Here is the input.
Amino acid sequence: MTAKPVAMVDLRGGYLAQQGEIDAAVRRVLDSGWYILGRECEAFEQAFASWSGARDAIGVGNGTDAIVIALKALGVGAGDVVFTVSHTAVATVAAIEMAGAIPLLVDIDPETFTLDPAKLEDAVAACKAGKPRAVIAVHLYGQPCDLGAIRAVCGRHALFLIEDCAQAHGATLEGRRVGSFGNAASYSFYPTKNLGAFGDAGAITTNDGTVAERARALRQYGWKERYLSDLAGMNTRLDEIHAAMLAVRLRRLDVEITRRREIAARYDAGLAGVIETPRVRPGAGHAYHLYVVRHPRRDALAAALRQAGIGTGIHYPVPVHLQNAYRSRIALGPSGLPETERASQEVLSLPMHPFLCEADADRVAAEVVRWTKA
Here is the structure.
């Protein structure tokens, strides 16, 4: 008898777990007759700001726009250099260019796959691409960056810090949620995220009231008063239906993150000494958006798991600086990106979502073990 497939993610699970509440929220919005930037959006923004530990949250259309708005709200634009990593979703780098700034890519720490603060220091000191203005620290896979060291670099060089929290809803550092450390933070609520919408959505958080005010204007043509643009803005508004559904999903988020950590602990136990598993930074609470293992024969392992009916993913197979749209023109740190390039050849994401049962998690681990011993 063939075992049932084990999927990488379960997008319907989040809906089915709260179906009644979500359906009621959608009906409430439809009955209200108000569908953009209304009471539902305001309520979700307040709830998400409180949950994240930030003063303000500003809902926008998607996570990419959240980065763009955060940069623009801080006054970062043409001629300004923004430092970030190449081992990330291309959205991080695309957003920098959408804001009119210049991305400069820095290598990662090979143990956590996040921005290497020492390489950041070197890149800022050697920067000739433009005026250094900001750092986007990507909390990748749910693992917090080394924010203490990164903030120290930002302080020495008068750089803004933006936290890219697209994969880190619920991650913590020294007991404090990420997204509350920098000048601003960006979130994606793409359906696969820890807090996923049922379509595109995003948000910015900040503890700076001026940044929040500018972000709210910038998301809607720069309006502070309707039809009057004080700033050159854009159209990236969080609609009421998504806000209402996200508010429902937020109420269950901590339970689902706890479940992700339970699954990760089960993988850790089953894979100990067999393959390189996620290393959690001291003082950090990993949110396990993804559970990423590492092996020099990654493609063979992925093929074996696929043959066994187990879904996997690669986050990410080609670093941004090696993709066709960026290869010939992107600026890099002075020592290049050797750890980034090596990681892209070795990382593999195993099934991870809060609706994964213990038996399936154990089966995934057992198949990995079997392959390594074959």
Observations:
- The chain is about 40% helix and 15% strand.
- Residues 75 and 211 are 9 Å apart (CA to CA).
- The two ends are 22 Å apart (CA to CA).
- The mean pLDDT is 97.
